[in-house]
Amino acid sequence: MTELSRRERKKKETREKIFSNAMQLFRSQGFSATSVEQITQQADVGKGTFYNYFPTKEAVIKEFSRRSWQDLTDRGRKKPSLCTRQRLSTLLQDWAEFMIKDREIAWVTVRSREGTDYDMSLHYGLLAILTVGQQNGEISSEYDPAFLAESLEGMMVQHFIRWFVSGSGDLHEELNHALSVFLDGLTEKKWEA
Question: Whole-model pTM?
Answer without folding.
Answer: 0.76
